[in-house]
Amino acid sequence: LARKAKMNTDVRRNIFCTVATSDDEDAAFERLLRLSLKGQQEREIIYVLIMMFLKEKNFNPFYPTLIARFCDFDRRFVLTTQYALWDRIREVNSLKLRARIRLADLIHHLISNEVLPITVLKVVEWGTLTAGVSSVIRRVLKLLSSSSVTKVRRIFNPLLVKDKNSLLAEGIRLFLSVNFPDSEVYTKLGETFLAS
Hints:
Layout: H1 10-20, H2 25-34, H3 39-54, H4 62-73, H5 75-90, H6 97-112, H7 131-144, H8 149-156, H9 166-179, H10 184-194
Helix pairs in contact: 1-2, 1-3, 2-4, 3-4, 3-5, 4-5, 6-7, 8-10
């Protein structure tokens, strides 16, 4: 099963099997820690979790919850998750439609639960968006717009800091105006982020 999922190293196969045979997030977390992986091998945990999640037919909160648990456990997992997501965003055009949807779901889950900041999207090349990246960003923003106004303000607050993240802020503003004109998404995000 691990080989079929393209887990092509012993470390990845070991992580895959540990996760696949765990009863819940707590058991998976404890069992993965007991593997005592260090450095690059430890970073493979996040990679494998993301790859397993992208292969799911339906949204399975197990993987985002487990990734969030590692991020809460140690800051190094936040950075690892961010870099892993950046890699997936860069290669999004090679992903199948279902994997793109899962990627958007994962990014949304991690941002809306404040595991990662909205600045995780700073890797997006707003001037040369491909259809694949555009579809992922569209889904992320649409899902974020279903959050409360208070939460949306907290999420987008890093973009409101003057002289910081200005390219990301402008990219999102333009993306919203082009992709969500006259929609609830534009209105909801406009009340908070765009009004500033």
